[in-house]
Design goal:
Blueprint lengths: L11 E4 L3 H11 L3 E8 L2 H8 L6 E8 L2 E8 L20 E4 L3 H10 L3 E8 L9 E6 L5 E6 L5
Parallel strand pairs: 1-4, 5-8
Antiparallel strand pairs: 2-3, 3-4, 6-7, 7-8
Length: 153
């Protein structure tokens, strides 16, 4: 069986409802850096890569914590849908971000209009045992896991 050598993870793409809101959240609340200007992409290329006719998009990249996020706001086609699966539903995913203080990060997210999802826990087993985590949801449903690492060196 052939194996592919992965050199690194380039970015994580996230389709958002409001690009301005998402850029401000990641840069002002979490301290990410906006990489280059936000800009639309060519319709033909976006239709080709997504397989969706009319896939008009504007994209911005932000980078923080050693990883880049591609924030995509689609403005077409007209029949776009919004899905907000619960954390237990197939198709849900979340972005885990290690922070210096879960309580401060949670409050900063709440001050920005995010909502708590569940309550804070201390992980009781596995490789993350002892870590404190809190889920928060941005207004478009993106779930962030704010994580304080117990054994950070």
């Amino acid at each position: 069986m052939a194996r592919v050598k992965v050199y690194e993870t380039n970015h994580t793409g996230i389709t958002v409802q409001d690009l301005d809101y998402s850029i401000r959240f990641f840069t002002e609340v979490l301290g990410y850096e906006l990489i280059g200007p936000r800009a639309p992409r060519g319709l033909k290329n976006q239709e080709t890569v997504t397989g969706v006719k009319g896939a008009a998009v504007e994209i911005a990249y932000v980078k923080g914590g050693g990883h880049a996020l591609e924030l995509l706001q689609y403005n077409g086609p007209a029949d776009r849908a919004a899905y907000q699966p619960r954390c237990v539903d197939v198709g849900h995913w979340h972005l885990s971000i290690n922070v210096d203080d879960v309580d401060t990060a949670t409050q900063a997210a709440l001050d920005y209009g995010c909502a708590k999802v569940g309550d804070q826990i201390t992980v009781d087993a596995g490789p993350n045992k002892g870590n404190k985590i809190q889920y928060v949801a941005l207004k478009d449903g993106l779930i962030l896991e704010l994580t304080w690492i117990a054994n950070r060196r």
